Amino acid sequence: KPLDCEAVLDCIRTTNAVVTIEDHNIYNGLGSAVAELISENGGALLRRIGIQDQFGQSAPYERLLEMNGIAVENIVKQAQELMGKKAKN
């Protein structure tokens, strides 16, 4: 909070796709807020990257990011897959 609604709406209008990335649980965070905004404004493709609904784990920070798909390689892969879906629509 606060969510920059105009920036997200601009992304929706220009790309019709949004990827959110957060280094905590994907529920009730940025991804959820963006999902609500998307659903209230006509829809767009959304990919939420972050920790899935699971118990916490212990490891060095960089390893935790990798274990939870928050590493750069996965972020790029997810964005490319989302854009591929967009191209098919």
Tell me what you see in this structure:
The chain is α+β, with helices and mostly antiparallel strands and 89 residues long. The chain is 52% helix and 18% strand. The protein has a two-stranded parallel sheet. Strand 1 (17-25), helix 2 and strand 2 form a beta-alpha-beta unit. The longest helix is centred in the last third of the chain and has 17 residues, at 72-88. It is globular and about 40 Å long. The termini are far apart.
The helix/strand class is alpha+beta
> In order across it, which strands form the biggest sheet?
1-2
Any idea what the radius of gyration is? 14 Å
Straight-line distance between termini: 32 Å
The dominant shape is: globular
Average pLDDT over all residues: 90
Number of helices: 4
Biggest sheet: strands, sense, closure?
Answer: 2 strands, parallel
Helix content: 40-55%
Provide the succession of SSEs.
HEHEHH
Can you count the beta strands? Answer: 2
* Beta-strand content bin: 15-25%
List unreliable stretches of 5+ residues. Answer: none
